[in-house]
């Protein structure tokens, strides 16, 4: 566990950090944060419970328990990471542990939106490149410098062109990834839309 | 890019604006909330000094944490009590309609909203729960969201989202006797894979889908997310309309005719364009059971667990993990695997028709002595209807425990949990590692009828042996 958590705010353009590799396809959000930790009314204490059951099973050998990874902040994963439950508790647990960005072969839809909503950029790379990074991380420490403007990551050894949804990239660069205020700017359009919807008129029994 | 599908029509209708960067701002017609994913959203609203914009378009119930044995308050579990109290307080403060325990309308959010007639064709529906795709069975565009998006819906009644592509899954012919909607959707997920739906909405169509009841259609759409699709839907038809008619929140009198006319205009056009089309032959599907740790790892009851060499390179990694976790052997028959726990319930298969089918199998039978079996109705309405039909007694006489409504052991946030590496035959939706409350518990997903058969024999069985 890292020192006190401060959520990211504003523009996100450069992210530099050590990679932590987690191998496996279809790693679901129940594994990232088991359901029993969802019994809470805030996210504050989730960081220590990230991957709790997987870590217990591996008795200290889980990547999140290795001494060499304790300052890592760029998670490197395989395909369909974050599938299953929509619980935002999963990225909230990761960010509180210290994860600032994720690079993977692919991500589940809801997990991806949850990450973007709380300021964790998720990037894609082809399977081959992910394997290169994960192999490298097996016995060495890899520091990556991520540049969102160029959608690129580099280190002494590597140069990668990262994939990221253009909408997400722009939001991070402009600092408008906290959606509420952007959405609220269109208040009049929202009210007009509400009045236009056919079912608002015939749903007199809704309340 | 898709054109003139129901998805396109409903999306375009609800589009408020194009946001810088390329995503759309979408109006949410119905917002459903529960105790697990909403408290932090209300907290964030308070921090930002914002109010709930359209409180009448949000409806709440309590489902994930409720105990199913003793529901008297305060709950024995202090954390669960704190969560329900927080929801009660948030609903009261923000004037949000809340269906609490004992209201007669409490239950799993995805069972309750259709029962109340809240779920209607042509709506956008969002909820902080991935199984929100269930509501697509009515021709609505419904999807799960995270807590930050719950905050956004509360504050603005809109969310920012990229438009999805549309894949039609055309299901030909009919399901054979003893094969149910659950088997069909497990089969689809197996054929397409658990991540094929990422970036897609699934339109389920064809004769096999048309033949399904509304509750069966909900089972199909419910599990879209297990195939990676955030949203799944079925074009509305007469079955849809007659299900909604006369429900508490359904349009009434002159509004009903207007609603009907509009709903009929929504379905995908005959010449609509899809991003992809897949065909499935429903008549070839057998009762289906999962053997692994993802809902895609399933086989027909008469098949063997696959050998590693039979799987694609992409599937091997997870298969290896599954063999290790489940302690099943490649090539082993799924039939006759011993089970410890049998669970009937969940937003996938906790509706009255699910209970009726299981009860037909269990009537005049006794479950195996080695099995702990329990049934958790999806809602208070389901429970009351079952009692009127004497279904609760059939379950109890067979040896099943009859419980109070909630999510229960689908995700084990209450005290209903597997112990150690118990094997569970479950009518729920996820067989992930640790999903049913024990970090080494093993879940085999199947239809409620198959769970009933497993309970009687104490092992995975072909339910068709109990029919005819």
Q: Helix fraction of chain B?
A: 25-40%
Q: Count structural domains of chain A.
A: 1
Gyration radius of chain A, rounded: 19 Å
- The SS-based structural class of chain A is alpha/beta
Number of β-strand runs of chain A: 7
Radius of gyration of chain B, in Å, reads 21 Å
Our estimate of the beta-strand percent of chain B is 15-25%
Mean pLDDT metric of chain A: 94
- Classification by helices and strands of chain B: alpha/beta
Question: Largest interface, and how many residues on either side?
Answer: A-B, 70 and 92 residues
Structural overview:
The complex is a heterodimer of chains A (207) and B (468). The longest helix of chain A has 13 residues, at 127-139. Chain A has helices at 29-32, 52-58, 89-97, 109-118, 127-139, 166-174, 179-184, 187-196, 198-202; strands at 14-21, 74-77, 101-104, 122-124, 143-147, 152-154, 159-161. Helices cover 35% and strands 14% of the residues of chain A. Chain A has a single domain, classed as Aconitase, domain 4 (Alpha-Beta Barrel), CATH 3.20.19.10. Chain A has 9 helices and 7 strands. Chain A is globular. With 207 residues, chain A is an alpha/beta fold. Chain B is 33% helix and 17% strand. Chain B has 2 domains: 6-264, Aconitase, domain 3, CATH 3.30.499; 288-466, Aconitase, domain 3. With 468 residues, chain B is of the alpha/beta class. In chain B, helix 6 runs parallel beside helix 8 (214-222), helix 13 (352-362) packs across helix 15 (391-398) and helix 13 (352-362) runs parallel beside helix 16 (448-457). The model of chain B has no long low-confidence stretch (mean pLDDT 97). Chain B has helices spanning 6-14, 39-47, 78-94, 109-116, 147-156, 181-192, 207-210, 214-222, 238-244, 254-264, 313-326, 346-349, 352-362, 380-389, 391-398, 448-457; strands at 15-18, 24-27, 30-33, 58-61, 97-99, 124-127, 141-144, 158-161, 165-172, 200-205, 231-233, 276-281, 288-290, 298-300, 341-344, 372-375, 401-402, 423-426, 442-445. Chains A and B meet through helix 2, helix 4, helix 6, helix 7 and helix 8 of A and helix 2, helix 3, helix 5, strand 8 and helix 10 of B.
């Amino acid at each position: 566990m890292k020192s006190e958590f401060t959520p990211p705010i504003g523009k996100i353009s450069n992210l530099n950090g050590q990679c932590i590799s987690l191998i496996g396809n279809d790693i679901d959000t129940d594994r990232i944060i088991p359901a029993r930790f969802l019994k809470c009314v805030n996210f504050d204490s989730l960081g220590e419970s990230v991957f709790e059951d997987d870590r217990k099973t591996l008795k200290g050998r889980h990547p999140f328990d290795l001494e060499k990874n304790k300052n890592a902040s760029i998670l490197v994963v395989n395909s369909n990471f974050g599938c299953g439950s929509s619980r935002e508790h999963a990225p909230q647990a990761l960010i509180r542990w210290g994860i600032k960005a994720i690079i993977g072969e692919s991500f589940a839809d809801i997990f991806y939106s949850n990450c973007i909503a709380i300021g964790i950029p998720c990037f894609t790379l082809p399977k081959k490149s992910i394997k290169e990074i994960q192999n490298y991380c097996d016995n060495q420490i890899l520091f990556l410098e991520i540049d969102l403007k160029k959608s690129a990551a580099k280190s002494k050894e590597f140069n990668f062109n990262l994939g990221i949804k253009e909408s997400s990239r722009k939001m991070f660069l402009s600092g408008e990834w906290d959606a509420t205020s952007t959405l609220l700017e269109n208040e009049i359009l929202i009210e007009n839309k509400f009045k236009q919807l056919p079912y608002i008129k015939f749903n007199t029994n809704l309340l | 890019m898709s054109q003139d599908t129901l998805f396109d029509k409903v999306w375009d209708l609800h589009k408020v604006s194009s946001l810088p960067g390329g995503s759309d701002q979408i109006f949410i017609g119905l917002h459903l909330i529960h105790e697990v994913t909403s408290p932090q959203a209300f907290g964030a609203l308070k921090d930002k000094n914002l109010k709930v914009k359209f409180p009448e378009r949000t409806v709440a119930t309590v489902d994930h944490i409720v105990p199913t044995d003793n529901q008297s308050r305060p709950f024995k579990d202090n954390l669960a009590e704190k969560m329900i109290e927080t929801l009660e307080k948030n609903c009261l403060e923000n004037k949000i309609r809340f269906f609490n325990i004992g209201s007669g309308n409490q239950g799993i959010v995805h069972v309750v909203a259709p029962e109340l007639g809240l779920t209607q064709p042509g709506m956008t529906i969002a909820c902080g729960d991935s199984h929100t795709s269930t509501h697509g069975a009515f021709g609505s565009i419904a999807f799960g969201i995270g807590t930050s998006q719950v905050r956004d819906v509360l504050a603005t009644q809109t969310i920012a989202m990229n438009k999805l592509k549309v894949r039609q899954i055309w299901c030909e012919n009919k399901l054979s006797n003893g094969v149910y909607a659950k088997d069909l959707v497990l089969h689809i997920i197996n054929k397409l894979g658990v991540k094929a739906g990422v970036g897609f909405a699934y339109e389920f169509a064809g004769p096999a889908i048309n033949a399904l009841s509304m509750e069966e259609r909900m089972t199909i759409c419910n599990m879209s997310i297990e195939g990676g699709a955030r949203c799944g839907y079925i074009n509305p038809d007469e079955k849809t309309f007659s299900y909604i008619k006369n429900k508490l929140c359904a349009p009434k009198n002159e509004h009903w005719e207007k609603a009907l006319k509009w709903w009929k205009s929504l379905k995908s056009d005959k010449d609509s364009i899809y991003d992809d089309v897949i065909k499935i032959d429903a008549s070839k599907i057998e009762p289906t059971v999962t053997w692994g740790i993802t809902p895609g790892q399933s086989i027909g009851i008469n098949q063997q667990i696959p050998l590693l060499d039979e799987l694609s390179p992409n599937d091997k990694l997870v298969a290896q993990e599954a063999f290790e976790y489940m302690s099943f052997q490649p090539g082993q028959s799924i039939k006759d695997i011993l089970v410890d726990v049998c669970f009937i319930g969940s937003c996938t298969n906790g509706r009255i028709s699910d209970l009726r089918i299981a009860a037909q199998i269990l009537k005049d039978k006794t479950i195996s002595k080695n099995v702990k079996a329990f049934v958790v109705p999806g809602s208070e309405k389901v429970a009351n209807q079952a009692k009127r039909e004497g279904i609760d007694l059939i379950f109890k006489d067979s040896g099943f425990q009859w419980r109070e409504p909630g999510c229960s052991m689908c995700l084990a946030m209450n005290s209903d949990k597997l112990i150690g590496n118990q094997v569970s035959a479950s009518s729920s939706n996820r067989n992930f590692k640790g999903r049913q409350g024990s970090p080494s518990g093993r879940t085999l997903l199947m239809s409620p009828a198959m769970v009933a058969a497993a309970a009687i024999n104490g092992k995975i069985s072909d339910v068709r042996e109990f029919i005819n």
